[in-house]
Amino acid sequence: MTTLSDVAKEANVSKMTVSRVINHPEQVTPELRVIVEKAMEDLNYHPNSIAQALVNNRTNVVKFVTLEDIDTTEPYYINLLFGFARGLNTKQYAMQLVTDPSQIEKGRADGYLITGARNKDYDMFDKLDKPFVLFGENHRGYDFVDTDNQTAEKMATQYALDRLYKRIIFIGIDIKEPFEYSREAGYINTLQQHQLIPQIYRVSNHSHAAQDVIHEHFKGFKKDTCFVCASDRIAVGVVRQLQAEGARIPEDFGVIGFDGVFLDQVSNPKLTTIKQPIFKMGEMLASMLLQKIAQSGSPQGEVMLKPELIRRETTR
Amino acid sequence: MTTLSDVAKEANVSKMTVSRVINHPEQVTPELRVIVEKAMEDLNYHPNSIAQALVNNRTNVVKFVTLEDIDTTEPYYINLLFGFARGLNTKQYAMQLVTDPSQIEKGRADGYLITGARNKDYDMFDKLDKPFVLFGENHRGYDFVDTDNQTAEKMATQYALDRLYKRIIFIGIDIKEPFEYSREAGYINTLQQHQLIPQIYRVSNHSHAAQDVIHEHFKGFKKDTCFVCASDRIAVGVVRQLQAEGARIPEDFGVIGFDGVFLDQVSNPKLTTIKQPIFKMGEMLASMLLQKIAQSGSPQGEVMLKPELIRRETTR
DNA sequence: TTGTAGGCGTTATCAG
DNA sequence: CTGATAACGCCTACAA
């Protein structure tokens, strides 16, 4: 591996000049800069991030903390992870995956990405001594990235109306968290604009729970109803039970999911769904976190990315 | 952060003695060792892995390389990743995720875990200058961890016979890779033991491809047939088309999947499947790779983990 | 068995 | 604007 010294020799300057060309190029005369850059090029020099980390008291490692149980969660974490990784790679950062909250501050890291945070988890955050960002909206002032949940369900609801479904029913997740409130708000607002009355069922985020609800209330559902669901899991359950009841999809009943990762592709018929730009969210989170680290913890704000409605086979 | 020096002062010894207590405890007298250990304890000392990395010319980072397209792959990678991460955490290692093969040697790492390798990829491996291990069986002498694919399909086939299905048909993946050959071999061997004639269809690893094959040949399938499938995706397609043809599962037709991650849980009826210990494989891969790094590249051999047959609703 | 000196590759600081 | 020096925290080699 070529080092700073090698480049310095090659360019006939001191190590410091080379270092400056890398970190503070404006402090070096253009002529010298060109020479040094050529030397770096010729020797294929890349700074040793470990040595940099040592002097800067950095680790070049961040932790990816998952507070949710990954087994029961949608497989979209893989996309978030790879997006996050892509973002980290630009700065030669690496990550450690942590599922046990007590392990967060164990070992060394420059910062944390925290996913799956619920209300009960927030107390812990203020005690963290390193910068962190959240995946998932919150209203406590913590930096985060999320889908624009409200707009997403507005899109879904409006689309259902455009397709001339007369009644729109929301099947939500029975959890008191901001993302769920936002999704419901998007649905409610859109209905109100059209002077329609919201009708909401809330179930645990499993397909069979959704099946149960459809089974129980099926007689009350009239034709031309569209179910706007807060997750693909729920949507899959709704579709399945509607089929079991002999209902025709999408002619008489529509179903719209939420997530757009994997499940929508293997279901039959294929789900119309709200697709979140998860990979991109991962990338955003990485750049946000790295920036926050570089700026010694300064706030990065909130980022809400626009989702996309994927039209497939469960809406007419 | 407390350093080696702090501990040394506290214990009234030199830094080296402390260092030795950590790395070569046998070279230190028991009495001193106790004193130093107490000092480390009192000061809550943890070695700075970055400084260690610098002197040892290590990075404490390994790369997780995915040569497969993660979008089209089973969501089991998430479990592999978390298992791998668990294994790395024991040694304070971090990882970088890489999907672009040309990026493998970019930046720094002490070694690589390579997944999704196909025949065409092997040429590249010999050029790698860092230790690596593979996820997925191969017969070229590279260290790997995988499910025992052959035993797995033996179990599946034998189980189908035990459940008194008279004909067992294998629906494989149309790919010329060791894992597929091993799965087929497990099936074929078991049939031959019972003097039955193997019948194999091969399709691309998508549910609709499996659907097509079932649709096309359905008339040729008699009652009491069990389909042993090389993946859950295929199994899901088989189930779906059998249902579409009006066949009764599991009474007249059985279906057994392979993978046991996620898909089997959301399908309806729930899949009987071969569950791979993926998390554990991830952990194994990590310890194997770390050991290989520690032993400067010495071979670690092949590890085939026993899978488990999960009996659910698609077999009688 | 224990300690001293030096160096890993980089950067901040201060002098020129 | 550029360079010499020291320091980050640890470990190897050698000396006592």
TrEMBL record, chains A, B:
MF terms (GO), sorted A to Z: DNA-binding transcription factor activity; transcription cis-regulatory region binding
CDD domains: HTH_LacI, PBP1_LacI_sugar_binding-like
Protein name, per record: LacI family transcriptional regulator
Pfam families in the record: LacI (PF00356), Peripla_BP_3 (PF13377)
PROSITE patterns (alphabetical): HTH_LACI_1, HTH_LACI_2
UniProtKB keywords: DNA-binding, Transcription, Transcription regulation
Boundaries of every HTH lacI-type domain copy: 2-56
